Amino acid sequence: VKLATFHRNGEIKIGAVLGRSLIDLSGVAPDMMTLIELGASGFTQAESAVKSAQSAFSLEEVELLAPIPNIRRNVMCVGLNYAEHTAEHYKAMGRESKLPEFPVIFNKATTSVNSPYGDILLDRNVTEELDWEVELAVIIGRTGKNILEHQAMKYVFGYCVLNDISARDLQRNHKQFFKGKSLDGSCPMGPWIVATDEMPSLKGLTITSRVNGVTKQKSTTDHMIFDVPALIYHLSRGMTLLPGDIIATGTPGGVGFARTPPEFLSPGDVVECEIEGIGLLRNAIVDASV
Ligand code: MG
Q: Which residue in 5, 160, 208, 250 has its CB near the most CB atoms, within 10 A?
Protein backbone atom coordinates (compact mmCIF):
# COMPACT_ATOMS: atom_id res chain seq x y z
CA VAL A 1 0.00 0.00 0.00
CA LYS A 2 1.05 3.61 -0.69
CA LEU A 3 0.40 5.90 2.28
CA ALA A 4 0.19 9.67 2.02
CA THR A 5 -0.33 12.61 4.34
CA PHE A 6 -2.49 15.27 2.72
CA HIS A 7 -4.12 18.61 3.30
CA ARG A 8 -7.72 19.04 2.16
CA ASN A 9 -10.45 21.50 3.22
CA GLY A 10 -8.31 22.80 6.07
CA GLU A 11 -7.65 19.36 7.54
CA ILE A 12 -4.51 17.21 7.57
CA LYS A 13 -5.23 13.48 7.20
CA ILE A 14 -3.64 10.27 5.98
CA GLY A 15 -4.80 8.19 3.05
CA ALA A 16 -4.03 5.27 0.77
CA VAL A 17 -3.03 6.12 -2.79
CA LEU A 18 -4.52 3.94 -5.55
CA GLY A 19 -3.46 5.16 -8.98
CA ARG A 20 -4.56 8.80 -9.10
CA SER A 21 -7.10 8.47 -6.29
CA LEU A 22 -6.88 8.66 -2.55
CA ILE A 23 -8.85 6.82 0.12
CA ASP A 24 -9.25 8.52 3.48
CA LEU A 25 -7.64 6.48 6.28
CA SER A 26 -8.41 8.89 9.11
CA GLY A 27 -10.70 6.19 10.56
CA VAL A 28 -7.62 4.02 11.08
CA ALA A 29 -5.22 6.62 12.49
CA PRO A 30 -5.17 10.42 12.78
CA ASP A 31 -1.63 10.73 11.43
CA MET A 32 1.21 8.70 9.92
CA MET A 33 3.20 8.34 13.17
CA THR A 34 0.16 6.80 14.88
CA LEU A 35 -0.36 4.43 11.94
CA ILE A 36 3.31 3.33 12.01
CA GLU A 37 3.09 2.69 15.75
CA LEU A 38 0.04 0.45 15.25
CA GLY A 39 2.45 -2.00 13.60
CA ALA A 40 0.98 -5.02 11.78
CA SER A 41 -2.53 -4.21 13.00
CA GLY A 42 -2.26 -0.79 11.31
CA PHE A 43 -1.56 -2.50 7.99
CA THR A 44 -4.52 -4.88 8.40
CA GLN A 45 -6.85 -2.03 9.33
CA ALA A 46 -5.61 0.10 6.43
CA GLU A 47 -6.14 -2.78 3.98
CA SER A 48 -9.68 -3.42 5.16
CA ALA A 49 -10.46 0.31 5.08
CA VAL A 50 -9.29 0.39 1.45
CA LYS A 51 -11.42 -2.67 0.55
CA SER A 52 -14.57 -1.33 2.20
CA ALA A 53 -14.16 2.30 1.10
CA GLN A 54 -17.38 3.79 -0.26
CA SER A 55 -15.68 6.75 -1.84
CA ALA A 56 -12.34 8.10 -2.97
CA PHE A 57 -11.19 11.47 -4.17
CA SER A 58 -8.69 12.54 -6.75
CA LEU A 59 -5.07 13.31 -5.86
CA GLU A 60 -5.60 16.58 -7.74
CA GLU A 61 -8.04 17.72 -5.05
CA VAL A 62 -5.48 17.61 -2.26
CA GLU A 63 -2.11 19.03 -1.34
CA LEU A 64 0.31 16.23 -0.52
CA LEU A 65 2.53 16.88 2.48
CA ALA A 66 5.69 15.08 3.56
CA PRO A 67 4.51 11.59 4.61
CA ILE A 68 5.58 12.37 8.21
CA PRO A 69 5.28 16.17 8.33
CA ASN A 70 6.44 16.52 11.95
CA ILE A 71 9.29 14.09 12.36
CA ARG A 72 10.32 13.42 15.96
CA ARG A 73 14.03 13.51 15.45
CA ASN A 74 16.54 14.46 12.81
CA VAL A 75 16.72 12.60 9.51
CA MET A 76 19.70 10.22 9.63
CA CYS A 77 21.75 10.59 6.48
CA VAL A 78 24.46 8.54 4.85
CA GLY A 79 27.18 10.28 2.83
CA LEU A 80 29.35 8.84 0.07
CA ASN A 81 27.26 5.68 -0.35
CA TYR A 82 27.63 5.39 -4.15
CA ALA A 83 31.10 4.84 -5.63
CA GLU A 84 30.54 7.34 -8.47
CA HIS A 85 29.52 10.07 -6.02
CA THR A 86 32.44 9.24 -3.72
CA ALA A 87 34.84 9.63 -6.66
CA GLU A 88 33.37 12.97 -7.82
CA HIS A 89 33.34 14.26 -4.23
CA TYR A 90 37.08 13.65 -3.72
CA LYS A 91 37.93 14.88 -7.23
CA ALA A 92 36.10 18.18 -6.61
CA MET A 93 38.08 18.56 -3.39
CA GLY A 94 41.37 17.75 -5.14
CA ARG A 95 41.93 14.69 -3.01
CA GLU A 96 42.58 11.05 -3.72
CA SER A 97 39.37 9.02 -3.81
CA LYS A 98 38.80 6.16 -1.43
CA LEU A 99 35.70 4.16 -0.62
CA PRO A 100 34.44 4.52 2.97
CA GLU A 101 35.21 1.63 5.33
CA PHE A 102 32.19 2.54 7.46
CA PRO A 103 29.08 4.50 6.48
CA VAL A 104 29.54 8.28 6.74
CA ILE A 105 26.70 9.44 9.02
CA PHE A 106 25.29 12.92 9.57
CA ASN A 107 21.80 14.37 9.97
CA LYS A 108 19.27 16.97 8.86
CA ALA A 109 17.19 19.03 11.31
CA THR A 110 13.50 18.20 11.83
CA THR A 111 12.68 21.73 10.62
CA SER A 112 14.19 21.02 7.18
CA VAL A 113 11.24 18.80 6.15
CA ASN A 114 9.43 19.97 3.01
CA SER A 115 6.45 18.72 0.97
CA PRO A 116 6.93 16.66 -2.20
CA TYR A 117 5.87 19.63 -4.37
CA GLY A 118 6.72 22.44 -1.93
CA ASP A 119 8.81 25.49 -2.84
CA ILE A 120 12.41 25.58 -1.67
CA LEU A 121 13.13 29.11 -0.44
CA LEU A 122 16.59 30.39 -1.32
CA ASP A 123 18.11 33.26 0.64
CA ARG A 124 21.19 34.37 -1.30
CA ASN A 125 22.53 36.07 1.84
CA VAL A 126 22.67 32.68 3.54
CA THR A 127 23.92 30.45 0.70
CA GLU A 128 25.15 30.83 -2.89
CA GLU A 129 25.66 27.11 -3.38
CA LEU A 130 22.40 25.20 -3.09
CA ASP A 131 22.73 21.68 -4.53
CA TRP A 132 20.56 18.61 -5.17
CA GLU A 133 20.89 14.98 -3.99
CA VAL A 134 18.23 12.40 -4.89
CA GLU A 135 18.07 9.60 -2.30
CA LEU A 136 16.07 6.57 -1.30
CA ALA A 137 14.69 7.13 2.21
CA VAL A 138 13.88 4.24 4.54
CA ILE A 139 11.18 4.67 7.19
CA ILE A 140 11.72 2.55 10.31
CA GLY A 141 8.62 0.73 11.57
CA ARG A 142 9.57 -0.55 15.00
CA THR A 143 11.97 -0.04 17.89
CA GLY A 144 15.26 -1.89 17.61
CA LYS A 145 18.86 -1.90 18.77
CA ASN A 146 21.84 -3.99 17.63
CA ILE A 147 19.82 -5.22 14.65
CA LEU A 148 21.54 -7.94 12.60
CA GLU A 149 21.60 -7.58 8.83
CA HIS A 150 19.49 -10.66 8.18
CA GLN A 151 16.79 -9.30 10.53
CA ALA A 152 17.01 -5.69 9.36
CA MET A 153 14.22 -5.67 6.78
CA LYS A 154 11.70 -6.62 9.50
CA TYR A 155 12.30 -3.17 10.99
CA VAL A 156 11.46 -1.32 7.77
CA PHE A 157 8.00 0.21 7.40
CA GLY A 158 8.47 1.55 3.90
CA TYR A 159 10.27 3.85 1.51
CA CYS A 160 9.98 7.29 -0.02
CA VAL A 161 12.00 9.65 -2.21
CA LEU A 162 14.07 12.33 -0.45
CA ASN A 163 16.01 15.29 -1.84
CA ASP A 164 18.98 15.97 0.47
CA ILE A 165 19.25 19.64 -0.55
CA SER A 166 22.67 20.86 0.53
CA ALA A 167 24.19 24.32 0.98
CA ARG A 168 27.77 23.49 -0.03
CA ASP A 169 29.31 26.75 1.19
CA LEU A 170 27.81 26.23 4.65
CA GLN A 171 28.90 22.59 4.66
CA ARG A 172 32.44 23.75 3.91
CA ASN A 173 32.51 26.77 6.23
CA HIS A 174 31.16 24.97 9.29
CA LYS A 175 33.21 21.76 8.87
CA GLN A 176 30.42 19.46 10.06
CA PHE A 177 27.59 18.79 7.59
CA PHE A 178 24.70 19.54 9.96
CA LYS A 179 24.17 23.24 9.26
CA GLY A 180 24.59 23.07 5.48
CA LYS A 181 22.13 20.16 5.33
CA SER A 182 19.50 21.68 7.60
CA LEU A 183 18.21 24.92 6.06
CA ASP A 184 14.43 25.25 6.31
CA GLY A 185 12.72 23.40 3.45
CA SER A 186 15.87 21.55 2.40
CA CYS A 187 14.38 18.07 2.89
CA PRO A 188 11.54 17.46 0.42
CA MET A 189 10.12 13.97 1.00
CA GLY A 190 7.42 11.78 -0.45
CA PRO A 191 5.34 11.85 -2.46
CA TRP A 192 4.07 9.02 -0.21
CA ILE A 193 5.44 6.03 1.68
CA VAL A 194 5.49 2.81 -0.32
CA ALA A 195 5.08 0.19 2.39
CA THR A 196 7.20 -2.95 2.26
CA ASP A 197 4.20 -5.09 1.21
CA GLU A 198 4.23 -3.25 -2.13
CA MET A 199 8.02 -3.16 -2.46
CA PRO A 200 9.48 -6.49 -1.34
CA SER A 201 12.80 -5.88 -3.11
CA LEU A 202 15.00 -2.84 -3.65
CA LYS A 203 16.95 -4.49 -6.46
CA GLY A 204 17.79 -2.34 -9.47
CA LEU A 205 15.47 0.61 -8.90
CA THR A 206 16.35 3.51 -11.19
CA ILE A 207 17.12 6.67 -9.20
CA THR A 208 17.16 9.97 -11.09
CA SER A 209 17.29 13.71 -10.59
CA ARG A 210 16.57 16.46 -13.13
CA VAL A 211 16.97 20.21 -13.04
CA ASN A 212 14.67 22.09 -15.45
CA GLY A 213 14.08 18.79 -17.25
CA VAL A 214 17.80 18.01 -17.74
CA THR A 215 18.93 14.72 -16.18
CA LYS A 216 21.68 15.32 -13.60
CA GLN A 217 21.82 12.02 -11.70
CA LYS A 218 20.90 8.56 -12.96
CA SER A 219 21.85 5.30 -11.30
CA THR A 220 20.23 2.32 -9.63
CA THR A 221 19.88 1.33 -6.00
CA ASP A 222 22.16 -1.66 -6.74
CA HIS A 223 25.09 0.75 -6.68
CA MET A 224 24.87 1.54 -2.98
CA ILE A 225 28.11 0.70 -1.17
CA PHE A 226 26.26 -0.13 2.08
CA ASP A 227 22.82 -1.58 1.35
CA VAL A 228 19.77 -0.98 3.53
CA PRO A 229 20.35 -3.95 5.91
CA ALA A 230 23.99 -2.89 6.36
CA LEU A 231 22.95 0.70 7.13
CA ILE A 232 20.38 -0.48 9.70
CA TYR A 233 23.03 -2.73 11.25
CA HIS A 234 25.55 0.11 11.59
CA LEU A 235 23.06 2.76 12.77
CA SER A 236 21.44 0.51 15.38
CA ARG A 237 24.72 -0.62 16.99
CA GLY A 238 24.38 0.64 20.54
CA MET A 239 21.78 3.21 19.40
CA THR A 240 18.05 2.56 19.48
CA LEU A 241 16.14 3.13 16.26
CA LEU A 242 12.55 4.29 16.75
CA PRO A 243 9.35 3.97 14.72
CA GLY A 244 9.20 6.88 12.29
CA ASP A 245 12.97 7.29 12.07
CA ILE A 246 14.06 8.17 8.54
CA ILE A 247 17.34 7.05 6.97
CA ALA A 248 18.46 8.83 3.80
CA THR A 249 20.65 6.25 2.08
CA GLY A 250 22.99 8.47 0.04
CA THR A 251 23.07 9.97 -3.43
CA PRO A 252 24.52 8.76 -6.76
CA GLY A 253 27.00 10.73 -8.88
CA GLY A 254 25.99 13.90 -10.71
CA VAL A 255 25.52 16.49 -7.97
CA GLY A 256 26.08 20.15 -8.83
CA PHE A 257 29.22 21.09 -6.89
CA ALA A 258 31.26 18.28 -8.47
CA ARG A 259 30.41 19.31 -12.06
CA THR A 260 32.79 21.18 -14.35
CA PRO A 261 32.04 24.04 -13.97
CA PRO A 262 30.08 23.64 -10.71
CA GLU A 263 26.30 24.12 -10.96
CA PHE A 264 24.00 25.36 -8.23
CA LEU A 265 20.27 25.98 -7.97
CA SER A 266 18.86 29.44 -8.72
CA PRO A 267 15.41 30.99 -8.24
CA GLY A 268 13.10 29.75 -11.00
CA ASP A 269 14.78 26.34 -11.25
CA VAL A 270 12.67 23.22 -10.82
CA VAL A 271 14.35 20.16 -9.36
CA GLU A 272 12.80 16.71 -9.76
CA CYS A 273 13.83 13.54 -7.93
CA GLU A 274 12.39 10.20 -8.96
CA ILE A 275 12.77 6.57 -7.90
CA GLU A 276 11.25 3.78 -9.96
CA GLY A 277 8.31 2.16 -8.18
CA ILE A 278 8.06 4.92 -5.59
CA GLY A 279 7.34 8.28 -7.20
CA LEU A 280 8.48 11.78 -7.99
CA LEU A 281 9.30 14.96 -6.07
CA ARG A 282 9.06 18.29 -7.87
CA ASN A 283 10.23 21.43 -6.09
CA ALA A 284 10.69 24.95 -7.40
CA ILE A 285 13.46 27.19 -6.09
CA VAL A 286 11.98 30.52 -5.00
CA ASP A 287 13.91 33.67 -4.16
CA ALA A 288 13.50 34.57 -0.51
CA SER A 289 16.51 36.81 0.00
CA VAL A 290 16.14 39.11 2.96
MG1 MG B 1 23.03 13.10 0.84
A: 160
